[in-house]
Amino acid sequence: MAEVPMSAVIREATHPARYSVEARRQPVAQPAALLRYIAQVEDILASSADTAAIPARVAGPLAELACVRDLLSPEQRTGQPDKYTRHTLYADPQGRFTVLAIVWMPGQTTRVHGHTAWGVVAVHEGRPSVALYEYEPGYGALPREEIRCVPGEVSWVRAGIQYPHRIFNADQRVAITLHTYGRDLSEDPCAINIPV
Ligand SMILES: [Fe+2]
């Protein structure tokens, strides 16, 4: 069963923008909750004249989706011992965005990376961590801070190598995160990441 909070707190931070939404559990079973989220993202894309504002607008709906109990199927909750595991939940037919669930076994991590498109990530279960870096031309990614996240917490980042970060699971329990990226990843889910 998903470990999710029950009441609401929104906290804002910087680089990448970050806040926590502890939303009321939604009595909506998959796929209704996912379909509703997809409709919300489509509305945001259709109404956002400023594309830079899209990830911040997607963050709230994704945080709410992350708090939906029993959102994922047993298969979508399956991890692998040797690498973190991506499960595609939805691929927009027009290629505008992709929704993923990622399962992190203890100790698994990404490389330090930026993104080829905007991205939003929310914690569904567990206590994954994010490490933030400053990008210095000529030097690369310089460590700035590490944050242990909680269920319902959401972060977002714009495209580019100027916002390097790393997600990892330093906890002893499995962690599951939900992601939405502003591009088609149906042929290569790794195409979202730019190593820094
Ligand atoms: Fe990332």
Question: Which secondary structure elements does this structure contain, and how are they paired or packed?
Answer:
Blueprint: E1 18-20, H1 32-47, H2 54-66, E2 85-91, E3 98-104, E4 113-115, E5 119-125, E6 129-136, E7 140-148, E8 153-157, E9 160-168, E10 175-181, E11 193-195
Antiparallel strand pairs: 1-8, 2-3, 3-10, 4-9, 4-11, 5-8, 5-10, 6-7, 6-9
Fe (ii) ion binds next to β4.
Number of domains: 1
CATH superfamily: Jelly Rolls
The top-level CATH class is Mainly Beta
Uncertain segments: 1-15, 22-29
User: Hetero groups bound?
Assistant: fe (ii) ion
CATH topology: Jelly Rolls
Please state how the strands of the largest beta sheet are arranged side by side.
Answer: 1-8-5-10-3-2
Coarse morphology: globular
What's the rounded overall pLDDT mean?
A: 87
- Biggest pleated-sheet summary: 6 strands, antiparallel
Structural class: alpha+beta
Count of alpha/pi helices: 2
Question: Quick summary of this structure?
Answer:
The protein is of the alpha+beta class and 196 residues long. Helices cover 15% and strands 35% of the residues. The N and C termini lie far apart (36 Å).
Word description of this protein:
The protein is α+β, with helices and mostly antiparallel strands. It is 15% helix and 35% strand. The chain has helices at residues 32-47, 54-66, and strands at 18-20, 85-91, 98-104, 113-115, 119-125, 129-136, 140-148, 153-157, 160-168, 175-181, 193-195. Strand 2 and strand 3 (98-104) form a beta hairpin.
